[in-house]
User: Fold these one by one.
Assistant:
Number 1:
Amino acid sequence: MKFNVPSVIFIIFVCVLLCASPAQTAADDVQSVSFSISFAKGLTEDAQDGRLLLMLATHNDDEPRFLVNTSASTQLFFGRNVEDWRGGSDVIIDGDAIGYPLADLSELPAGTYYAQALLNRYKDFQLANGVTVSLPPDRGEGQRWNRKPGNFYSTPIKIEVGAATSDSFHLVLDQVIPDIEPLQDTQYIKHIRMRSDLLSDFWGEDVYLGAHVLLPEGFDEHPEARYPLMVFHGHFPNDFGGFRTEPPDPDLEPDYSTRFDIAGYNIIQQQEEYDFYQTWISDDFPRFIVIEIQHPTPYYDDSYAVNSASQGPYGDALTYELIPFIEDRFRGIGEGWARFTYGGSTGGWEAMAVQVFYPEEYNGAFVACPDPIDFRAYLTTNIYADNNAYWYDSQFMKLPRPGHRDYLGNIHASQYDYNRFEAVLGDKGRSGQQYDIWEATYSPMGDDGYPVRLWDKETGKIDHSVAEYWRENYDLRHILERDWPTLGPKLEGKLHIYVGDMDNYYLNNAVYLTEEFLEKTTNPYYGGEVDYGDRAEHCWNGDHENGNHISRLRYNTMYVPKIMQRIEASAPEGADLTSWRY
């Protein structure tokens, strides 16, 4: 595609806007702003380590801690580390603290703000290799720093920042986010938790894996039945989602979904959940077990379901500890031909990765809008050939690499934006966000015990030695091509990949590259499918009949016909194909 001259002028204009501070003119009038932050008396007697965050909002539609994000509507926040912080002493956040989207407090315009502070608390982990790392432990919330039980935060206050003045404000951490109430089992949904020996050995303390288990209709009435297993991969699930045994609440006030531009989406969701229940208990629906796994780590809301240097043997723990534990407890068949994986986005990558890394333990992966499965298209960066993750290579222009678009190609955020946001939340890969978990999963461990950076978090300069480590260990397309003589016979007919051709995060680009290889495979031909949704955004999953607002609610049923066909075609001689078909 060629650009005409007006297009180039427009791009340069956008670059200038992106590179300039949006509040620079107003901020020039501010001499200095600082915040002193302390603990309320009696809040804690222990010394605290962690990431201290200051949030400033121009409105009070919600607490400031819930108003910072990577969208155009984000409010401001700033961060710094604290170590051995004790009651009776103040910590200062001033122009030295890193900020987003403003670089630091020196750029803060005069005006009215609502201010709030929060401490994302860390703890020390003594790893089995002898290294000690300080990380934010998950507390059952899935690494959500602004909702993490045990984190300290302040009551928001209204402040006035003047022009050409030196303003200082004081915030008091006086509240603690409460613990999460344990879930209650129901007739169909059970919640399990098990200690992983493999992960406990790695982390030097007890580590537990969890799962929400959806049991088939008639489970108690058919003790002779043993069931196939469907593993739904994805972000940290608070409970088993999308299942409701009662009709939609007639008194539910309809809401509006900004993402899908649909009024009453909450009512649609409840109806879909109830429809799933009705399908689940119907006479002609096959009986099987569905699980949603909980495997948060100190780096993210889940581990990415593979073994990694900085997080430990999560792939082995899930495949060889958790899944057999569930199958034994709930009468699963317990053999690879009767296990299937599926999911979207993070879950899509995980579903494909466990199928590739454990090819005989699963009999099919349904991979929707996966995170990059070929790192030549790591979003909008080729980590092997490009020099910088934030800026396109150019002698004279500074053209940012986009990080998010809509279905028409309108850009909403750059890769730098996402990484700057993470840098405020935490250094050393401790933001709990997307780019940091990719490094925590794919990178080697550094001498300090933390993941080695693929690129410099501030400049975007790529470390190609780290990229090579990624290629050999986690680039799924590369691994397929490298190992096809041995992997191919074990994966024949098992890979099903779906993505929208206008995926918001450009994830379709890696799928194109992977499809090029798969279609060339021989001895054997891969025998699966790759499908694209026309102008479909993240996270299209193969449904050409319905919009994503509907299809995303039908993951647990949409692949069942293909799974049944796969079982009938591939089950070994003498396999149990009847006890679960009542």
Number 2:
Amino acid sequence: MAKKIDVMEEKLKNEIVTEVLEDFKKRQQERKNFEGQWRLNMNFVLGNQYCSLNSNNEVEDYDKRYFWQEREVYNHIASIIEIRLSRLNSVRPKMSVIPSSADIKDISASKMSKAVLDSLAHKINLSSILSEGASWSEMCGTCFYKVVWDSNAGKVVTLDPYMIKEGDVGVSVIPPFEIFPYNNNISRLEDNPSIIHARAYPVETIKSIWGIDVAGETLDVFSLSSTNTISGFGYTQNITSCGSEAKDNHALVIERYEKPTTEHPNGRLVIVIKDQLVYDGELPYINGVDGQRTYPFIKQMSVAVPGCFWGISVIERAIPVQRAYNALKNRKLEFLNRLSMGVMMVEDGSIDIDDLEDEGLSPGKVIVYRQGATPPAMMSSNRLPVDFASEENRLMNEFSLISGISDLMRQSQSTYANLSGTALQLLIEQDTSRLSCSIDNIKFAVIEIAKQVLRLYKQFAVVPRLAKIMGEKNSVEVFYFTNSDLGGDDIVCDSETELSSSKANQRSMIFELLNSGLLQDETGRISNDVRYKLLEMLGVGIYDSKQDLAQMHIKAAQKENLNFSRLDFSDEVQSYDEHELHINEHIAFLLSKEAEEINKDKNLKKKVLDHINMHRNCIKLMQGE
């Protein structure tokens, strides 16, 4: 009986493997049109611009028609992408976690959640991950982030009998070449019934991750290669192209994620490696809304297309203009070559043609022609037409119009000498607004990453974990947390992008506020707290030791605020305290929402008020009253 059941189970596994492989091949074919465009985009960015898509949607290079043709590449697409990325890479929105309620416990939990997000962002270098994702989305129109729980990360918690680590969240960038949706016409990733993630791994990596042995095979994987191409008149140039490369000893890993259904209320994950079924079970992560399980992917697009799963890149719009620009510049060079080297007319049989073709018209050359024949003569050439210059300017303007990159952003020096500072600022803001769609897509992706990170910590961080964040003035703050310490996952952006608030803009605004007198108090002076903040924003706060000391007193007072509720708290006032700073921090604490529980406890509130009076008495003693 057991043997019969084993046979049935093996047959069921084979059916699942066959169904997944057939589904994967079907999705490959449906996505082929999009993949061909991505490869063409990348070739144009890398400088391989004499190529096109054939009838099979494969990138195919084409040769020049005549040996004398100029075929140089004047790559403006690469500079457009570099400028866009330099702007988009400055988009690093800071996350804030909204408390579930006004209760002090929920407020503390939301602060702990924000600290955990800041700690993880520093640990995994989230800024570098977002930069890589922006590069993929700008070139292909779409990229993905995968948020998973890595059980092999973190500190070792036990060694007996096996080495077990505490695990940690991992965030990685997934190129669009590895994602296969259920339907390319369903725009939202969450609305697709299933998503396939397919990647080729070395067999050694498969052994270390999944613990199975598979036979390696030769697979075509995405690669970049460098080739030499002939430009014109025998010149060659090195061109990097995007294509496929055969890799030995690899195996394809297919992960199919399915949404929760009536049959599978927690969703389903099927992992097939070559012809083996490695996993068939529920989705592993509670990473959706209201404790649901969903896909561990976040999609980011450069420009969204309604009714399409994939976004588009500005490269697709710029390719026709780039081809026209290359053709124009090369035809212009060919015309100049004819003007400089000339075209000679020779009567048949009058001179040695082979000698003239080999040596050309060198300075001082003596041309011997047959007696009685017509002497060789240069064919008259016209001047360079002005249409070349006008068409070149028109194409440059078209680059700016379709890419969202203006001359102000493209040029390293300003050509607007007659404009005022306010007018230049308005131009900069207009340039920023043209990138607003791509900026918003990055913000949405970061918010979704933060939500899934917190949900994974709530699911897996069951033992106390150590985390650290960078405090003010490069101080390091260390804290412990568990999943019960984390609050809601309602994430918002609490600051604008650096595009609209750069260092230069901040400094200009500070000096304007100083000149207007808005930062002075009623006596016309600037308080120490305000002065410290201003110096810190200007980037020179570290040189003012007096302000450093004031900040240390403020931090000491804030630590006292957190410890008032402890039974062993000593309310003694130190002789070296800056009493004014302490009093201000304690009063601000009593007026804040966080102190609502303290205000309800009369004994605790009396302890805080008595401590404030101690500081005031010390001030009176110092003044001789």
Number 3:
Amino acid sequence: MENPQNLNNIEDENAYIENQYQEMLAIYKKSAHRQKIELIDKAFRFAVDAHQGVRRRSGEPYILHPISVARIVAEEIGLGSTSICAALLHDVVEDTEYTVEDIEERFGKKIAQIVDGLTKISGGVFGEQASKQAENFRKLLLTMSEDIRVVLIKMADRLHNMRTLASMPQAKQLKIAGETQYIYAPLANRLGLYAIKTELEDLSFKYEHPDKYEELSSKIAKTKESRDKLFEMFSAPISKALDALGLKYEIHTRVKSVYSIWRKMQTKNIPFEEVYDLLALRIIFDPDENQSEKKLCWEIYSAVTDQYKPHPDRIRDWVSTPRANGYEALHVTVMGPLGQWVEVQIRSRRMDDIAEKGFAAHWKYKTGEKDDSELEKWLQTIKELLENPEPNAIDFLDTFKLNLFASEIFVFTPNGDIKTMPQGSTVLDFAFLLHTDVGTTCIGAKVNHKLEPLSYVLNSGDQVEILTSKKQTPSEDWIDYVKTARARAKIRSLFKKEYRNIMKKGETSLKELLDSHGQSMSRDLISQMLEHYGKTKKEELFYAIGKSQINLDEVPKLFFKAKAESKWMKFWKLQFGSNKKEAKETANTNKSKVLTLTESSKNYRIAECCQPIPGDDILGFIEDENKFVVHKCQCPVAMKLKASHGDNIVSAVWETHKVLSFPATIRVNGIDSQGVLSRILNVISEENEINMTKVNIDTKDGIFEGDITLYIHDVEDLNNLCLNLLKVHGMKSVNRIENDKQGK
């Protein structure tokens, strides 16, 4: 495909635009939707005229963006003419003089409503300020509960923006990637758009960790030949068995995405070479009209497990009980011919369509009966949440997000009815799921006929009978017992007034303490306290102080001594962007500029939550008028900042040096033998000349495992140390572990 930026004249450009439109139209013509070519063509010509002469940041004509969004809507989500027209027109009202009324007059009420919904949330989920951003998100949910096509088109819009993010400045890339990973990817997953969710995660990762992305992509490419050989060897006996059953089927391979590989490496502290489930097999079958999909899934399962032994704990039956996003499939992990575990996913053509295209395909297969699918139930919970919104817009965003990320568990009522809940849900969550009155009077439950408290965390398959008492009065501590957005919203609404009073008391107490020490309640100080106490917003901090959960007596010694005075902080160098100006100007007035921090500057600090060291991918957050906090890009706190305060993010890179030392922790594991600890310590202190501050190693049944905290110059030195330690006889693994506070 020719690059539109390289076209020489307007005629060539117009021909290119027409060609892109015709390609999109050809995809639509192949679909099973009623063909409304005339309406789509009318929308395209109208959009071309409306955006005439306007260009994107990359230099290409603006109209190519709506065409691309319409193509994603048609090809990757599978929507029809109404959605395609709305996609072509989605920026017309926001960017031109045309109004929603103009759209309605030309294209009818439904298309106008969808365009209006998209215009209301046009700034992305996120606006200038955090509260504005959460308000935009509320609008998104309102339009989603009215017409799901609004959010599906918004997904296509975000996907195309991510695909063309390279033309944006780095700070903008970090902001957009951050909000994509924070909201859009989990929302795509919740809507069953698995392919889009995976691509959004990979693209976000690509812009946040470009070097790591390239490294992992290269390693995946290098393993292709061995994966192909394994696939041929593994699938041949299965194909033979399925042929004997007389089935119509296809077998495909699915390679784990770059982002999911990286996440696994991070969470399990393992290198790429130890990610053994890179390859999965997908069997898609076409049943005859009189054949049961469920029965065929189990027949194929039987054929697979006749060839290879299944892992007893890794069978997932989402055919009998579909996941909350509508996903249906039977998964089994079996031992392959070369002694490695391989996951096999078994789906019918209908199941595969729903898995790849989510909600749109879910509609396609509706039977006309009352739909009580998990997706419909989820939309109903959104409506309830909107009817009882959080007192604070950011609380609302956080509360909703709880239900976006959650994996599901299936819980039974005493009558055998099945309920789907987020993983980690408690007895109290279940009570509020049944009814608000049941929740407020709940005193406990019988879980599998055994008495359990309100805080008991439920497991998939539990049968739960809620016990209530009219004498029960809800407690504000209940907020700590619940996981679901519904229960949290209900409990918060019960304690709004009391919560505010305690919060005010805490704020007053902190202010009095600061006044007595001649200190002010600056954003810098509040940010440090939030990090230290594992809180995400100042209201939570004030509430914890008001409840005496935080000891104010320790605040002066923890926060009143300037951390910039520590030895390594004084000389630490950071280069923001590539401009070499001194950091003398006020950060808020220079968000678009790049800054260099010299040894003598004191307008930055390292985030306690993730403690980055030279070599880590980092970003700077403008904390106060002339203050920066430096986080790792993948730090959960930084992810939230990117999403909620994206305009305060600046790109940052380390200035290389070998002068200063930074704290880091490694985890060692191996076979215990006489003198092994001495050899480990010798490699660290003698051979690599690295100082240790803490050594904690335990041995059990001939195996040792432990953590060692060191002072290291940068990531390169740390990697070299890990390689040298792996040479110690009996050592099995050495990995850097993240700061514990990150997960809080």
